[in-house]
Amino acid sequence: MNRTLVVAVAATALCAGLTLLGVMVGSAGLSAGEVLQTLFVGGDPGRHLVVFELRLPRVVAALLVGMSLGLAGALTQAFARNPLATPDILGVTSGAAAGAVAAIVLGGGTYAVGSGLLGIGLPLVAVLGGLLAAALVYGLSWRGGVDGYRLVLVGIGVTASLTGLTGYLLVSADLTQAAAATQWLVGSLSGISWTSVWPVLTALVLVVPLALSQVRALEITQLGDDVAAGLGVAVQRHRMLVILCAVVLAAVAVSASGPLEFVAFVAPQVARRLCGTARPPLLASGLLGGALVLGADLVGRSLLPGSVPVGVLTALVGATSLIWLLTRRPDPARSPA
Amino acid sequence: MTTTVEKDLPALEVRAATLGYDGRVVLRDLDLRIDPGTVTTLVGANGCGKSTLLKAMARLVRPSRGEVLLEGRPIGEVGGRQVARRLAVLPQKPLTPQATTVHDLVSRGRHPHQSLLRPWTREDAEAVATALAATGLTDLADREAARLSGGQLQRAWIALVLAQRTPLLLLDEPTTFLDLTHQLEVLRIVRRANREHGTTVVMVLHDLSLAARFSDRLVVLSDGGVLADGTPWEVLTPATLREGFGLEAAVLPDPGTGAPMVVPLEPED
Amino acid sequence: MSLLLSPTARRRGVAPVLIGPALIGAVVLVVAASLLLGSNPLAPDVVVRALLDRDRDVGAVVWGSRVPRTVLGLVVGACLGAAGAVMQGQTRNPLADPGLFGVSAGASLAVVLGLHVAGVGSVTATALLAMLGALLAATAVFGIAALGRGLASPVPLALAGTAVTALLGAATSYLVLTDETTLAGYRIWVVGSLSGRTLEGLGPVAALAGLGALLAATQVRALDALALGTEVAAGLGQSLLRTRLLGLAAITLLTASAVAVTGPIGFVGLTAPHVARALVGGTHARLLPASAVVGAVVLLACDVVARMLGGLGELSVGVVLSVLGGVVFVAIVRRGRMAEL
C-alpha cells in the first residue's frame, strides 16, 4: 500500500510538472513564471488568449484523456484477469471509430464539428458509437450472467464487424473525407477546445468514485468468481459496474482525442510493476496514463519537426516500453510450476 | 515388450545435484541411485523439492550443479527422442486437448518411436491396444477424452505413458484429485507394469500409507537433502515422520497387506 | 476450447466418413460460384466454353480475371487457414490469429513506404514489398521474444507481436497522413481485396507459400505432442526449440504470402481452425488440411458475395469477411458450449 501511495504522489507531481511544461511550450514560448502569473493573477490579454484558449485546453485534455484511458485500462485488466486486456475488446474503440468515421464520411467531412446529416457533434457520435457497441457486446455475451471469456470472444467478433464496416466507409468516401477520417483515427489533440474537455472531465468526476467503490470487490474477484461469491460479492452486479465505468471512460476519452493506442494497455502495466501489486492499481494507472499522454503530446508538438499526432507517439512510447519490458528479467509476480 | 537394462547398471543416477526453482535452492548435493526393476517413491513435505527432483531425473529441469545419468550416460548428452524411448514421464497437470478421442490421446505416447518416415506401424497399434487394455479403457477408446471423469482421464494419461513402452516410468503425483478407489486403481496399474514387465518406476506421492503399500523403496526428502532412504518399514518411523513432516504419528501394519500405515495422532492439549 | 457447432453435429460414427467428401463438395461449389457469378453473371455452358477457348471475349473475362481470382482466393484462404491452425497449436491459444506476429503491420508499412517514397503502385510490386515487410517484421518479433524470455512460452511472442504491430502501425499512420496519394493507395490495400489480382509475377510468393505449407505439414505430430503441455511434449522427446522455430517459420511464410496477395485479411486464420476442429477433431494430421480447406472455402465464398454486392460500391472480400465473419463468430460463441481453457 505504501509503495502505491508513493507512486501515486510521484505520478501526480509528474502530471503537474508536465501540465505546466505543456502550457509553457509552443510557438510563443512562455516561462514558468509567466504561465503561473497568467493562470492565477491575470496578465496581458494576448498571453491570456494563448494560455487559456490555445494551450490549456489541449494540455488539460491530454491529462484527462490519459487519466480516463489509464483508469479504463486498469479496470479492464482487473476484471478480465488478463494483462493483455484493453477496453478495445469491449468494442468501445471500434464502435467509436465506426461512429466517427460514419459521421465524417456521411455527414460531409467537417472534422471538428459534424454537420449536415447528423447535426450533432462528432465527439457525441463517437461516444454514442462506443457506448452502443459496448452495450451490444455486453448484451450478446449475456447468458445468465456474463462470463469474462465469452465477453472477450463476443468483443472480438463485434470489433471485427465494426472494423470491416469502418474500412468500407473509408474506401467508399472521397479522398478528402477519407483523409479527415484517417486523421481522426490516428488520435490527435490538435485543434481541441474546451467544449471537448468538459465531457471528459464530467465523466471522470462521475466515474472515479464509482470505480473506487468497487475496489475491494475487484481484489476479491481476482481469486475467482466462485470464491468471490462465497465471500459475499455480488459478482454479476459488480462486473457490470466495472465494465460500465471502463466503457464510459474509454468512450468519452476516445471521442475527445480519437483512439489513442496503447495508453490503456501500458499505463496499468507500468503502474503494476512500479507498485509491485498483482493487479493494476486504479489511481496510479490513471495518473500514469495522464503523464503518458501529456508527455507524448509535448514531444509531438515541440521536439519533432512538423506536428506528429499524439496517437503515433503513444504507440511509439507504448510499444517501446513493452519491448523493453519483454527483454528484461521475468516478472516476479509469477508462480512456479 | 520393454527391454530390460543390464543388471548392475543403475537405471537412473543422480550425482551431487543441486536443484531449485525461482532462485531458491531446495536440494543440495544430492545423491540418489535407482536400481532397475524397482518401485521407488519420493515423499516429503510440500516444497521439499520432490517434484523438482523427479523433473531433473526426467530431463525437464537441469540441476545447477551435479548431473543426472540415464543408464550410465549423462542425460543431457542423450538426444530427446532417445531419452523418451527409455524414460516416460507423466508430469502434474498435463493439458487435455479438445476434440481428441481416448485412442488418439494414448497414441501420442508412441511419438518418440515415430518419425516422418514411420508415422504408424503395427507395433504402434499393438502398444496402444495393450496400454488401453492394461488401464481398462478399451471400451472407452472412442470417447472424447475431455469428457471423461477425473479417474478415467488419469487412467488415460497412464495409458499414454504405458504405450510409450519404456523401461523407466516417472510419475509426478499421479493420484492427486482422485478419490481413493481411483487412486488404488492407478497404483495397481503401475505396480502391474512393474511386476509383469520389469518397468522401473519412480513416483512422487503425497499419501504416505499408499506410498508404503505400493513401493519397494521410499526416499524422504527434507531440509535440502535425503532424510531417510530404505524400505517402507525402515523409513516410516515416528522419528522420521516428526522430523520430515512435523507429524506426530503412529505406524501400524496394514491388516491386509502388512505394509506400514501412518496414523496421525491428535495433539494433547 | 472447442466451439461446438451443435450437439448433433458431433455425434460420432456417421459424421467422420462424410466430412471429407462434404468438404470437397464445398470447394467445388464455391469454385463454380466464383466462376459463374459476379457483377456479370455467366451461364454455366458459357463458362465451360470459355474455359476451353481462351481468346474470345468471354474467355478473356473468365481466364483473365475470374480464374486467377478463384485460384488466388483458394490459395490465400488455404494459407491463412493452415497458418491459423499451426498458430493455435503452437500457442495453445484459441484466440491466436496469424496476424499476431506483426506480419500484417510489416506488410502495410512496406507498401506505404513504397507508395510514399517511390510511388510504387502495381499489384506485383506491391505484393513483393508486402512480402518483404511481412518477413522482416516477423523476424523482429521473434528476435525480441528470443532476446527476453526465449521462445519456450508463447506469451512473450504475442506481446512482442503486439508491440511491433503498434510500432509499425504508428509509422504507417504517420506516413499515410503526410500525403493523399499514399492514403489513396493504402486505404484500398488495407481492407483486403482480391480485385484486379492476377497470377503474373507471383512466382516468389508462390514459392514461399509452398515452402510454408511443407513446413506446416512436418509440424503435424509435433503439434499433437505440444497440445499435451510443454512438459509432456518434452517427455515424449519433442525438442521445443526446434518445434517453435519451424512452426513460426511456417506461420510467417504462409501468412506473408497471403498478405502479399490480398493485403491484410483477418479472421480466416482465427476461425477456420475452430470450424475444422468441430468437423474433424483435434488431431493435427486431419486438422491442418481441413483448416486449409475451410479457409479456402470461406475466403472464396466471401469474395463471391463481395462481387455480387458490387452495387454497393467498393465492397471487397476483406470487408465482407470482417463483417460477416464477426457476426458468424458471435453466433457460434453464443450457441456453443464453452469449456474453460
Characterize the structure shown.
The complex is a heterotrimer of chains A (337), B (269) and C (341). Chain A is mainly alpha-helical and 337 residues long. Chain A is built from 14 helices and no strands. In chain A, 56% of the residues are buried. The C terminus of chain A is likely disordered. Chain B is of the alpha/beta class and 269 residues long. Chain B has a domain of 185 residues: P-loop containing nucleotide triphosphate hydrolases (Rossmann fold). In chain B, strands 6-7-8-3-9-10 form a six-stranded mixed beta sheet, with helices on both faces. Chain B has a four-stranded antiparallel beta sheet with strand order 2-1-4-5, with helices on one face. In chain B, β11 and β12 form a beta hairpin. The mean pLDDT of chain B is 90. Chain C contains 14 helices and no strands. The N terminus of chain C is likely disordered. Chains in contact: A-C, B-C. At the A-C interface, α6, α7 and α14 of A face α5, α6, α7 and α14 of C.
List keywords for this structure.
heterotrimer, A: 337 residues, mainly alpha, 14 helices, 73% helix, globular, B: 269 residues, alpha/beta, Rossmann fold, 4-stranded antiparallel β-sheet, 9 helices
The coarse silhouette of chain C is globular
Number of strands of chain C: 0
Number of helices of chain C: 14
Q: What is the averaged pLDDT score of chain C?
A: 81
Measured by residues with Cβ under 8 Å of the partner chain's Cβ, the largest interface is: A-C, 52 and 55 residues
Q: Span between N and C termini of chain C?
A: 6 Å
Residue fraction in strands of chain B: 25-35%
Q: Summarize the main sheet of chain B.
A: 6 strands, mixed
CATH topology of one domain in chain B: Rossmann fold
- Low-confidence spans of chain B: pLDDT under 50, at least 5 residues? none
What is the H-and-E element order of chain C?
HHHHHHHHHHHHHH
User: Mind telling me the CATH class of one domain in chain B?
Assistant: Alpha Beta
Beta-strand percentage of chain C? Answer: under 5%
Please describe the biggest sheet of chain C, giving its number of strands, its sense, and whether it closes into a barrel: none
Radius of gyration of chain B: 19 Å
Topology of chain B as a string of helices (H) and strands (E) = EEEHEEHEHHHEHEHEEHHEE
